[in-house]
Specification:
Elements: H1 24-33, H2 39-49, H3 54-73, H4 76-85, H5 89-101, H6 104-131, H7 139-142, H8 149-168, H9 172-196, H10 199-226, H11 239-281, E1 286-293, E2 299-308, H12 315-326, E3 330-339, H13 345-377, E4 384-387, E5 392-396, H14 405-417, E6 423-427, E7 435-436, H15 448-462, E8 467-470, H16 484-498, E9 502-505, E10 516-517, H17 520-523
Parallel strand pairs: 2-3, 5-6, 7-10, 8-9
Antiparallel strand pairs: 1-2, 4-5
Length: 525
């Protein structure tokens, strides 16, 4: 590549003499900062590291594998380990520098490497999740399903640190970890969403990954231009290539602008809701908690307010006024902690704060439980029935291809293990009951038969089934000398009734819930 230093522009070009050249700050920046950078060396390093290579593919696979295992275990330490070896920084910074230089060839190399890295990472994470016995969404997974302002800032600062380190030739590995923070975990969650066919998780993680990726690439482009990497360093460009690169930059900016607009809109809504509650309850009131669920329709607002008893309001009266202020339908719930002016103000305030904190913690826990249950069942949080008083939650799961009753039971158990003090019930879709296999010649319910019966009873309770049909169960008076299949059926019926579910003979009349018992001829050979 025949590249020229940005400060080596010909002196006989009038266009090079601009009014801002005489400004002290610009003069200092151009000669003391930009002038001391070896642009050719930096670009050679960027080009060398941003392309597709066997090492790059291998490290992507290792990083993605570690990331998804850490997410499934909800282990931040393991997720950090994935960031330490992730090579995603190189092609993204290569993309940013290519946009700054209008370098079409480098743009193609970087995009090819990035696309291959994304495909490899998603493919491996999908495979690991499909084979893993742990499929329940964890706190680490749920934390990466919705982009917010802090995620955007992490991506922005990571890009600034990465670009600066590459230009100055220091600390690329450390800032690579920072960039991996914003990219590899969300990418692994995309694979998790695909593997579990959980559209809510998949859409949220994809939005987060795209937002962070675009932020990093555009920030790298802007900083590269600021440090003197312009089109005059690259090979001769055609107007077509310049137009394509400009269009690509604009296309990348669109999702970022959309994300910024959504984040700012949500922040404005929260501020307006807080102002509204303060105005309604008076200056002496305190809004101690305010949660706005934008993923519900209409948006759900829940708040805890400490106010004098004389300023109490009915939520039913406040809701229409808030809806008019926001210009959209809203569901409002305000927990009011009222204080009598004549009581001990200090003691009353302390008691009110204690109650407010307790209510806040309870609501936060309930919201988290709803998110966990919804992610497991593949539905939205508003489809989860939460009983805050008894710390119970129930959700009707949608059918996920390839997931059996045993898989749904394991997901429910994992969710309850991660939610101490709560009971989460997952109602699985109607699926075939497991086959009860007895040991040859035996009518004892043990081993696999015991496990299959326990799973069938679990499903019956979740489906709210009052009676189960038992194949081979004699009707009326039991025979004096029952056959083997009848003895087995009677033993199963005793166990079913002991669990609080009625056991009835299979009538063959289209009963929906009938236990599956392997016939003797299928196992007694």
């Amino acid at each position: 590549m025949n590249r020229r230093h940005p400060t080596d522009a010909p002196v006989d070009r009038p266009a090079d003499v601009r009014w801002w050249d005489s400004l002290p700050l610009y003069h200092w920046w151009r000669h003391q900062v930009v002038g001391k950078i070896d642009h050719n060396e930096v670009m050679a390093r960027v080009v060398d590291e941003s392309g597709l290579s066997p090492r790059y593919c291998f490290m992507i696979l290792m990083s993605a594998g570690i990331a998804i295992l850490g997410l499934l275990q909800s282990s931040p330490a393991v997720v950090i380990g994935a960031m330490l070896i992730s090579p995603l920084m190189s092609p993204i910074l290569g993309l940013g520098f290519a946009l700054a230089l209008f370098d079409f060839a480098e743009l193609r190399r970087s995009l090819t490497a990035l696309a291959m890295g994304i495909l490899l990472a998603i493919a491996l994470t999908v495979l690991i999740v499909v084979l893993s016995p742990l499929k329940a969404p964890t706190a680490e997974i749920l934390a990466r399903t919705r982009p917010n302002l802090f995620d955007l800032l992490v991506a922005l600062f990571s890009a600034m640190a990465g670009t600066y380190a590459v230009i100055r030739g220091r600390g690329e590995t450390i800032v690579g970890v920072a960039i991996a923070t914003a990219l590899m975990p969300p990418l692994a969650v995309v694979g998790y969403g695909l593997a579990t066919q959980n559209m809510a998780v998949l859409a949220g993680a994809t939005a987060l990954f795209v937002t962070n990726f675009v932020t990093i690439a555009l920030t790298a482009m802007i900083l590269a231009r600021l440090f003197g990497f312009g089109h005059f360093l690259s090979r001769e460009q055609t107007w077509l290539q310049t137009g394509i690169l400009a269009t690509a930059s604009l296309a990348m900016a669109i999702p970022l602008a959309f994300a910024l607009g959504q984040i700012s809109s949500e922040a404005l809504t929260v501020r307006e809701v807080r102002q509204f509650l303060t105005q309604q309850f008076g200056d002496e009131a305190r809004v101690t908690q305010l949660d706005v669920a934008f993923d519900k329709a209409p948006i759900a607002v829940r708040s805890v307010v400490i106010a004098p008893r004389s300023h109490s309001h009915s939520t039913r009266e406040l809701e229409p006024s808030l809806a008019r202020k926001l210009g959209q339908p809203v569901s409002l719930q305000v927990d009011q902690i009222l204080i009598d002016p004549g009581s001990d103000s200090v003691g009353a305030q302390r008691e009110a704060l204690r109650k407010a904190n307790a209510a806040s913690e309870e609501e936060t826990a309930a919201s988290q439980i709803a998110r966990v249950a919804a992610a497991i069942a593949g539905v939205t949080p508003d489809q989860v029935t939460v009983d805050r008083e008894h710390h119970r939650a129930i959700v009707q799961a949608r059918n996920l291809p390839g997931l059996t009753l045993a898989g749904w039971q394991a997901l429910e158990a994992r969710a309850n293990a991660n939610a101490p003090g709560w009971r989460i019930g997952v109602v699985p879709p109607v699926l075939p009951l497991p086959l009860l296999r007895f040991v040859n010649g035996s009518d004892a319910i043990d081993g696999d038969a015991k496990a299959s019966l326990a799973l069938s009873l679990w499903a019956a309770r979740r489906w709210n089934v009052a009676a189960l049909g038992v194949p081979g169960l004699p009707g009326g008076t039991p025979p004096v000398r029952p056959r083997l299949n009848q003895r087995r059926a009677m033993a199963v019926a005793v166990a079913v009734r002991a669990a609080g579910v009625a056991a009835v003979p299979e009538t063959g009349g289209g009963q929906q819930f009938v236990l599956a018992i392997a016939p003797p001829e299928a196992v007694d050979k």
